[in-house]
């Protein structure tokens, strides 16, 4: 099996948002995705779904960062040192972001979504409608994940 | 905003499965993902999650198919003609597959998963742990999706 496969992509559109820095991680943030105009008709029918997956290119990640093998979640030393595939860190071999968002509006080549943790001008690679095969009723996450999540929720209250 | 961004990826591993043709769509199918050996440590800690997302490259999709704008879901003429972004068709501008799977085992650079609808030798681009941000309690899908899903369930019974 050869690893010498060339995979080349071009963005289908770009993120437009006023949120900067950590603000993008707020699940209330509303962003637009502006698609390449020639792809407008490829959006037809998407308005019937309430949620989407957005796949985007983490274009701030350097080639050097793509070689990182292990991280502390959120860069916190009180968290275990874990393989990058066991986390959602942006420092990944192939830095593709994946976020479930709420679809708010579709107008021409622009869709408006809520909960996209991507910076302004981020290249979008693909979007997919969210369906019941994407959910999981009884899923398990590690202790460290639950701890981070609890802190996040407490901070908001 | 320039669209002239070059995005280049290389596989992190490959799918290994005995399932062929339509068999891969059976959610009971068990596959392996064999990672590049140098990425073995990047898997550390993943065993604590029960479910993962697998992002893979749909390498059977031709350059011509990447220009398709609209499809009938499952190629069925009794289904509406929809923009590709409103479906999970493999005929996409950037043919990246996304499937939630159950993680069964981790051993060295090989993980065993259930429910991956990818053919043998499919290049894997990334894997991500599944967490509660990926779920959605009240999501809406179109009538055509419900109809297809009902047929699929009936067939199994």
Structural notes for this entry:
The structure is a homodimer of 157-residue chains. Chain A is globular, with a radius of gyration of 17 Å. Chain A has one helix spanning 143-156, and strands at 7-9, 13-16, 30-35, 51-57, 70-71, 82-83, 96-107, 110-114, 123-129. By secondary structure, chain A is mainly β. Chain A has one helix and nine strands. In chain A, the strands form two sheets. The first copy, chain A, has a six-stranded antiparallel barrel with strand order 2-3-8-7-4-9. Chain A has a two-stranded antiparallel ribbon with strand order 5-6. The longest helix of chain A has 14 residues, at 143-156. The mean pLDDT of chain A is 92. The interface between A and B is large, with 67 and 67 residues.
Q: Topology, please?
A:
Two copies of one chain form a homodimer.
Chain A: E1 7-9, E2 13-16, E3 30-35, E4 51-57, E5 70-71, E6 82-83, E7 96-107, E8 110-114, E9 123-129, H1 143-156
Antiparallel strand pairs in A: 2-3, 2-9, 3-8, 4-7, 4-9, 5-6, 7-8
Average pLDDT rating of chain A: 92
- Termini separation of chain A (Å)? 52 Å
Helix run count of chain A = 1
The interface involving the most residues is between: A-B, 67 and 67 residues
Q: Which value, in Å, is the CA radius of gyration of chain A?
A: 17 Å
Q: What is the number of strand segments of chain A?
A: 9
Indicate the proportion of strand residues of chain A: 25-35%
Spatial order of the strands forming the largest sheet of chain A: 2-3-8-7-4-9
Helix content bin of chain A: under 10%
Tell me, briefly, the overall form of chain A: globular
- SSE sequence of chain A, one letter per element: EEEEEEEEEH
What structural class is derived from the secondary structure elements of chain A? mainly beta
Poorly predicted parts of chain A: none
From the structure provided, what is the oligomeric state, counting identical versus distinct chains?
Answer: homodimer
Largest sheet of chain A: 6 strands, antiparallel, barrel
